[in-house]
């Protein structure tokens, strides 16, 4: 009987302690997720090309087991559609995408994504193969070959042409190509053509054509027109809103790792170029080494991102509402930290 009484008393103490734990605010299920959360598994999707360059050093550290805050699983793809699908079905938690695609996804998913930071400024240049151009207005009567119909490149080109007094539909002929790689053969067929190329294609064209030169940097031309009201921001990193709500501290830790990865890309160009070739971001390291300094790598977050990116998306919206998904994103699109 004494043993039974002792057992009942012990059980009573256990239940009492459990009840205290539930009532004194220390229940782990109700704890602040920012304090309770440990390392998270993050599925990160990146696009080949400039928007993916900033993630290669993070990927290398993750594969070496040198990222302590989170476990990163990086997927590289060359197609926007794959990233959209991965974000939409929850396979991707965080992704590096074009800024207008981020806005489109926000509208399409009813606020299902947020933009964490801008990672890429302008990467477009106007190139010629011996044709002399002193001002953008000199493009009148020219044929301009460009990728990106219905996407960032088309709207940027139109904005710059209009800002220099040219009608994109009457004063020039814009010949769109499917991919930047298709620009490699343009001068073989039309030596007098003008090309608007993104990085790293622009660098490859200049390397392969002795008489070629860069006539205009579209980032500089954009800023001349905008007067500082907006910055040409072409790439960003987004997160699924549901993932952010579930893992706020993991996302905050990711941004620290990601900012460090971008800084490494800017300061260790040679090492980053090797990683770009290794991961298929840019085909060859020598090309990557020359292209990386021209890729507008940056890290802009918080209030500055909201102001500058908001101005850029406004220009996109005014050019064509469809370019940002039909309407400008609301304030909750921008991650404040």
Tell me about this structure.
The chain has 15 helices and eleven strands. The termini are far apart. With 337 residues, it is an alpha/beta fold. Strands 2-1-3-10-4-11 form a six-stranded mixed sheet, sandwiched between helices. Strands 7-6-8-5-9 form a five-stranded mixed sheet, with helices on both faces. The protein folds into two domains: 185 residues, Periplasmic binding protein-like II (D-Maltodextrin-Binding Protein, domain 2, 3-Layer(aba) Sandwich), CATH 3.40.190.10; 103 residues, D-Maltodextrin-Binding Protein, domain 2 (3-Layer(aba) Sandwich), CATH 3.40.190.10. Helix 7 packs across helix 10, helix 12 packs across helix 13 and helix 13 crosses helix 14. It is globular and about 60 Å long.
Please name the defining characteristics of this protein.
337 residues, alpha/beta, D-Maltodextrin-Binding Protein, domain 2, 2 domains, 5-stranded mixed beta sheet, globular
């Amino acid at each position: 009987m004494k043993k039974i009484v002792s057992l009942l008393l012990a059980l009573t103490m256990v239940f009492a302690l459990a009840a205290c734990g539930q009532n004194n605010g220390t229940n782990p299920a109700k704890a602040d997720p920012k304090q309770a959360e440990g390392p998270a598994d993050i599925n990160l999707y990146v696009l080949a090309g400039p928007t993916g360059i900033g993630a290669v050093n993070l990927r290398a550290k993750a594969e070496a087991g040198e990222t302590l805050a989170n476990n990163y699983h990086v997927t590289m793809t060359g197609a926007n559609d794959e990233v959209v699908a991965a974000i939409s079905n929850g396979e991707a938690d965080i992704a590096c995408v074009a800024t207008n695609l981020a806005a489109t996804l926000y509208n399409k998913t009813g606020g299902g994504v947020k933009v964490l930071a801008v990672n890429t400024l302008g990467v477009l240049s106007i190139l010629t193969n011996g044709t002399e151009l002193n001002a953008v207005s000199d493009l009148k009567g020219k044929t301009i070959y460009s990728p990106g119909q219905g996407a960032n490149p088309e709207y940027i080109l139109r904005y710059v042409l209009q800002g220099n007094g040219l009608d994109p539909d009457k004063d020039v002929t814009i010949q769109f190509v499917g991919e930047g790689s298709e620009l490699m053969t343009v001068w073989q067929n039309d030596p007098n053509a003008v090309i608007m190329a993104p990085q790293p294609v622009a660098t490859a064209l200049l390397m392969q054509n002795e008489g070629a030169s860069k006539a205009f940097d579209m980032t500089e031309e954009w800023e001349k027109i905008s007067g500082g009201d907006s910055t040409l921001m072409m790439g960003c990193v987004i997160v699924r809103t549901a993932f952010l709500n579930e893992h706020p501290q993991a996302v905050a830790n990711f941004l620290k790792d990601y900012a460090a990865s971008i800084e490494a890309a800017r300061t260790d160009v040679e090492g980053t170029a090797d990683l770009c070739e290794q991961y298929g971001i840019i085909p060859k390291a020598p090309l990557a080494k020359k292209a990386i300094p021209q890729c507008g790598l940056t890290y802009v977050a918080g209030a500055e991102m909201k102001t500058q990116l908001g101005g850029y998306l406004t220009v996109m919206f005014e050019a064509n509402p469809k370019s940002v998904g039909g309407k400008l994103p609301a304030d909750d699109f921008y991650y404040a930290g």
